[in-house]
Amino acid sequence: MAEFPSKVNTRTSSPAQGGGAVVSTLSPDLGFVRSSLGALMLLQLLMVFNVGATVLYITAFITCSSSVELTSLKGSQPYNQRAAASFFSCLVMIAYGVSAFLSFQAWRGVGSNAATSQMAGGYA
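RE: above sequence
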Protein backbone atom coordinates (compact mmCIF):
# COMPACT_ATOMS: atom_id res chain seq x y z
CA MET A 1 0.00 0.00 0.00
CA ALA A 2 2.95 2.31 0.52
CA GLU A 3 3.86 2.18 -3.16
CA PHE A 4 0.39 3.28 -4.33
CA PRO A 5 0.96 7.09 -4.27
CA SER A 6 4.05 6.76 -6.43
CA LYS A 7 2.03 5.06 -9.20
CA VAL A 8 -0.61 7.78 -9.39
CA ASN A 9 -0.05 10.56 -11.91
CA THR A 10 -1.89 13.74 -10.90
CA ARG A 11 -0.72 16.05 -13.68
CA THR A 12 -3.41 17.42 -15.93
CA SER A 13 -2.98 18.60 -19.47
CA SER A 14 -3.98 22.03 -20.65
CA PRO A 15 -5.73 22.64 -23.96
CA ALA A 16 -3.53 23.57 -26.90
CA GLN A 17 -2.94 27.29 -27.21
CA GLY A 18 -4.10 29.03 -30.38
CA GLY A 19 -6.26 26.11 -31.50
CA GLY A 20 -9.40 28.20 -31.58
CA ALA A 21 -12.89 26.87 -31.33
CA VAL A 22 -13.46 23.43 -32.72
CA VAL A 23 -16.59 23.16 -34.80
CA SER A 24 -17.92 19.66 -35.22
CA THR A 25 -20.73 18.69 -37.47
CA LEU A 26 -23.22 16.07 -36.49
CA SER A 27 -23.94 13.50 -39.11
CA PRO A 28 -26.47 10.71 -38.82
CA ASP A 29 -25.17 7.20 -38.46
CA LEU A 30 -26.64 5.71 -41.61
CA GLY A 31 -25.21 2.31 -40.79
CA PHE A 32 -27.33 2.19 -37.64
CA VAL A 33 -30.44 3.40 -39.48
CA ARG A 34 -29.98 0.66 -42.07
CA SER A 35 -29.63 -2.02 -39.39
CA SER A 36 -32.65 -3.96 -38.19
CA LEU A 37 -32.46 -2.36 -34.74
CA GLY A 38 -32.38 1.14 -36.27
CA ALA A 39 -35.30 0.36 -38.56
CA LEU A 40 -37.33 -0.89 -35.59
CA MET A 41 -36.47 2.26 -33.65
CA LEU A 42 -37.63 4.48 -36.52
CA LEU A 43 -40.78 2.41 -36.90
CA GLN A 44 -41.49 2.78 -33.20
CA LEU A 45 -41.01 6.55 -33.43
CA LEU A 46 -43.46 6.67 -36.34
CA MET A 47 -45.92 4.58 -34.35
CA VAL A 48 -45.70 6.94 -31.36
CA PHE A 49 -46.16 9.94 -33.67
CA ASN A 50 -49.22 8.38 -35.31
CA VAL A 51 -50.82 7.48 -31.97
CA GLY A 52 -50.22 11.02 -30.69
CA ALA A 53 -51.69 12.54 -33.84
CA THR A 54 -54.72 10.26 -33.56
CA VAL A 55 -55.36 11.41 -29.99
CA LEU A 56 -55.04 15.06 -31.02
CA TYR A 57 -57.43 14.64 -33.93
CA ILE A 58 -59.93 12.81 -31.71
CA THR A 59 -59.82 15.85 -29.44
CA ALA A 60 -60.26 18.18 -32.42
CA PHE A 61 -63.20 16.15 -33.71
CA ILE A 62 -64.97 16.17 -30.35
CA THR A 63 -64.31 19.88 -29.87
CA CYS A 64 -65.52 20.87 -33.34
CA SER A 65 -68.56 18.63 -33.14
CA SER A 66 -69.61 19.86 -29.73
CA SER A 67 -69.14 23.54 -30.62
CA VAL A 68 -71.83 23.48 -33.30
CA GLU A 69 -74.76 25.32 -31.81
CA LEU A 70 -78.06 23.50 -31.89
CA THR A 71 -79.86 26.72 -32.71
CA SER A 72 -77.70 27.59 -35.72
CA LEU A 73 -79.31 27.23 -39.09
CA LYS A 74 -78.15 24.50 -41.40
CA GLY A 75 -76.47 26.06 -44.39
CA SER A 76 -75.26 29.14 -42.51
CA GLN A 77 -71.56 29.97 -42.67
CA PRO A 78 -70.63 29.13 -39.04
CA TYR A 79 -72.50 25.84 -39.26
CA ASN A 80 -70.82 24.89 -42.55
CA GLN A 81 -67.36 25.81 -41.24
CA ARG A 82 -67.71 23.72 -38.10
CA ALA A 83 -69.22 20.82 -40.01
CA ALA A 84 -66.35 20.89 -42.52
CA ALA A 85 -63.78 21.07 -39.71
CA SER A 86 -65.43 18.14 -37.94
CA PHE A 87 -65.54 16.08 -41.11
CA PHE A 88 -61.90 16.82 -41.95
CA SER A 89 -60.70 16.03 -38.43
CA CYS A 90 -62.69 12.78 -38.50
CA LEU A 91 -61.08 11.72 -41.79
CA VAL A 92 -57.58 12.59 -40.61
CA MET A 93 -58.22 10.86 -37.28
CA ILE A 94 -59.20 7.67 -39.10
CA ALA A 95 -56.16 7.92 -41.39
CA TYR A 96 -53.74 8.37 -38.47
CA GLY A 97 -55.47 5.59 -36.54
CA VAL A 98 -55.09 3.16 -39.44
CA SER A 99 -51.48 4.24 -39.91
CA ALA A 100 -50.77 3.72 -36.20
CA PHE A 101 -52.38 0.27 -36.34
CA LEU A 102 -50.33 -0.71 -39.38
CA SER A 103 -47.15 0.61 -37.75
CA PHE A 104 -47.93 -1.47 -34.66
CA GLN A 105 -48.52 -4.55 -36.79
CA ALA A 106 -45.20 -4.02 -38.59
CA TRP A 107 -43.41 -3.38 -35.27
CA ARG A 108 -44.89 -6.47 -33.67
CA GLY A 109 -44.43 -8.58 -36.77
CA VAL A 110 -47.60 -10.03 -38.22
CA GLY A 111 -47.78 -13.77 -37.63
CA SER A 112 -44.68 -13.87 -35.47
CA ASN A 113 -46.18 -15.85 -32.65
CA ALA A 114 -43.40 -17.65 -30.77
CA ALA A 115 -45.32 -20.90 -30.49
CA THR A 116 -46.28 -21.10 -34.15
CA SER A 117 -42.87 -20.04 -35.45
CA GLN A 118 -41.09 -22.70 -33.34
CA MET A 119 -43.51 -25.39 -34.37
CA ALA A 120 -43.32 -24.47 -38.04
CA GLY A 121 -39.55 -24.09 -38.03
CA GLY A 122 -38.59 -27.09 -35.97
CA TYR A 123 -41.13 -29.80 -36.68
CA ALA A 124 -42.82 -29.04 -39.96
